[in-house]
Amino acid sequence: MLSLVGTAIGAGILFLPMNAGIGGLWTLIIVTALVLPMTYLSHRGLSRFVCGSGTPGSDITTVAREYFGVVPGKIVTVLYFFSIYPIVLIYGVSITNTVDSLMVNQLGMPSPPRWLLAGVLVALLTAVMVAGERTMLIVIQWIVWPLAALLIGTSLYLIPHWSLDGLTAVPSLPSAGATIWATIPVLVFSFSHAAAISQFSLAQQRAYGPEVAPRKAGAILRVTSIGLVVFTMSFVFSCTFALGIDGLGDAAASNLPVLSYLANVLHNPVISYLGPVIAIAAISSSFFGHYLGAAEGAAAIVRDVLGRSRAPISEGRMKIGVALFIFVTTWLVAVVNPSVLTLIETISGPIIASILYLMPMYAIHKVPALEAYRGRLSNVFVTVAGLVAVSGILFGLFR
């Protein structure tokens, strides 16, 4: 649960209020009702996809080849990489903007050259990963639970600033539908811990055996999803009530996490310093979890490209090469500073949905090993949610 929560809490949650709350109270209530079944059922489906392999110990890329064949399996490997890799890029943008805002608005320092600030921050995050998985896990353990407590505490602390002005109006059906449609990819991104599901499922296989693992994984995922939805949506409601519609629009335009924006506009000493610290901790913890998935996918792609035409690359050289690739590309994107919400809506959300929502449902429908899970209403719900999230790329491009 700790690793799953740490993977899920990141930039998406800190940008979610600007997207989910902009439609007002009633749209936010509808989104909240959707997010729990979406989160739980989709991750349970992906875990079943991994656990259903006839060869226990196979990760998601290997299982995809077992189910679909070599060429489709390679396609899944590429999609898996691109469902996680853009998230790493998003965290490079987010942590650069957050630290820059902290230095300028709270510490009264001049804004440093963006290329230098981004390079230092991305290098520090990457260095933790290069130091080893054990170092990363230690850092996450020190971050996740205090982070969850701070998010809940911030939600309560904002109560005196609440105002429902402009939030209670009932939106028209087209307006509400458009807001929900745009929000679904952000929900998928914000609550996704898909990058950890493959290794999580393998750990359940090792601990409980292939027969019991799917049931045990489902139980853990259910509790994880409930916990994430309770404290995350409490945070979203509280930020929405504190900022209002106009404040949410200004926060989105600033390209800052909502806590950093609150720190700048409330002029409250607690929020001013605590908000950016929470944002930095959330971005860092989730960067680590998604870096692992991106590195795993990148290494698999390199091996597929090289095939047997060359001598195999050692694990050490592969690790360093992947780290350099992720560092350089994340640094460059952080310097360019694209809109985080645009990246989420048009790239990360739809691609994650294709892997997390649609691929397991297709496998359940087609693969004999997963036949026991067919004919359930939950499969229809996950498929529809996945299609809506994938179609979000069209909405993002043409709205």
TrEMBL record:
Q: How is the protein disposed in the membrane?
A: Multi-pass membrane protein
Q: Which organism is it from?
A: Mobilicoccus caccae
Q: Give the protein name, as stated in the record.
A: Septum formation initiator
The membrane spanning regions, by residue number, are: 20-41, 75-95, 115-132, 139-159, 179-198, 219-245, 265-283, 320-341, 347-365, 377-398
Taxonomy, superkingdom: Bacteria
Q: Which residues form a coiled coil?
A: none
Q: Tell me the keywords, alphabetical order.
A: Cell inner membrane, Cell membrane, Membrane, Transmembrane, Transmembrane helix, Transport
Q: Which Gene3D superfamilies match?
A: Amino acid/polyamine transporter I
- What subcellular locations does the record give? Cell inner membrane
Primary localisation category: membrane
Gene name as annotated: sdaC
